[in-house]
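INTERNAL AUDIT FORM
Audit reference: QA-55
Scope: verify that the stored structure record matches its stored sequence.
Auditor: D.O.
Record contents follow.
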Amino acid sequence: MFAIPTLSSRRLRRSGAVTAVAAAALLASSAAAHAQVNTQGAPTHNYYLQGTNCQALVGAVKTANGAAEGGVDVTCGSNHRITARAVEYRWNGSSWQTWSSGDWTAYTSYLTVHTGPICGGPAYWFTRAYVTVDGLSYGPLDSNSVSSYYDPPC
């Protein structure tokens, strides 16, 4: 196994400039439905958002064809003004590629946001989210502390 470079803020800014946002379908829902993040698959992390009655679950979203897709589910005990963004990171062997959901905002107790599906061969992946609840900002919130190896079958 080889070491994966850590993400520096400089590298994140640079990788953000080459983000393939246009290729990603943007999806969000404020309906109180089942969670989009797959807790049975790739690593996830649940964050308790201090100063609120909300939690953010960050991780991979299960897709029908096995494509990689990052997401964040924000669940609160009451309605709040919630803004969320999910970013999926892929290490291609020399640099990080990123796909973003963009920012989604709703006055609700549940908001799920995810990137579009991503194919592209074996790589190391992780999901990062940014959440704001009633003006309180949280992030970066990472799905796992180390990127996970995955080969999307699509």
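Auditor finding: record pair retrieved intact. Strands lie at 27-29, 45-49, 54-60, 70-91, 96-100, 104-114, 123-133, 136-142, 148-150.
Action required: none
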